[in-house]
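Q: What does the predicted 3D structure of Ldh family oxidoreductase look like?
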Amino acid sequence: MNETTIVAAAALQQAVSNALAAAGADAESVSTATRAMMHASLLGIDSHGVRLTGHYCAMMKGGRINPRPVPKILNRTAASAILDADDALGHLAGYRAMALACELAAESGVGAVGVRRSSHLGAAGAYALAGAEAGYIGFATTNTDSMVALFEGAARFHGTNPLAFAAPVPGQKPWLFDMATSSIPMNRVLLHRSLQKPLPEGVAADANGHPATDADAVDMVLPLGGTGYGYKGAGLAGVATLLSAVLTGTTLDPDFIPMYGTPDDKTPRNMGHFVLALSPDHFAGRAVYESGILRYLDALRGAPAREGGRVMAPGDREWETLARREREGIPIDPDTARFLGFA
């Protein structure tokens, strides 16, 4: 069985919330995890959407993730802080960190928050977007467990280590750019396994580092740029590790307990994240910023396209997907449909 099930957004959101609550999560954990996963599923980032609900529930029941955390703010200065997440769901940690970064930026122009003792962050763009929706330029990143080969490497080293940016646009949806530093996230490999679909060429490799398209044969994914220019993706993955782990004193990519495939569901993973908020008011000023980004986006969207092509700004495709899925429903894979009671 490899067909998706289409579920109305409201019904899916309720099912996710119910499952998290049944696993013991407190109200804030339920609301933030549901918000972040629905963000991903509505915008077409299915690898980091509601399909992860079952995993998070299992980890809360096992003890790896604290379903009722009490996060603490440490080392707070005028423009920076550390958030100790108390082994919370990464979604709660991410949203709290960005809210704190915006609070700092409101006073200092810049707010930088490192997170420690967290868990899987989900789609990093959810937290960058939260900053943009509050009126700030937002950035979010995290390092993850090793599943990406180095350039010309034959073993896992970095995680998929996303970099996400978002910026407010007056009268429009925010500019939103959310990318993995790998060619694809490993969760997309798992999604393709569930759907029994082959992967594109040049994005993943088997246990010997040889390119593979059969999702069942994949052991690692390749850095952004693939076999020819993967040094770029590998370098960017290092940026995520520098900010999320080295700067915060948390776990390096090769030292993580794997997210999947281990019998240990009790030991917390001590994941680190990093978020940044920039206040346009403290730089050229809000009016100048808004005029500039509108002119920039008008020029970008009006740039010549090749025959049959279409020039889009970061986020345009995602906002179109959001509108369509709000109208038509969200596709979920067979495993997720079974877990959430839609199959």
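A (community wiki): The structure tokens above were generated from the sequence. The chain has ten helices and 13 strands. The mean pLDDT is 96.
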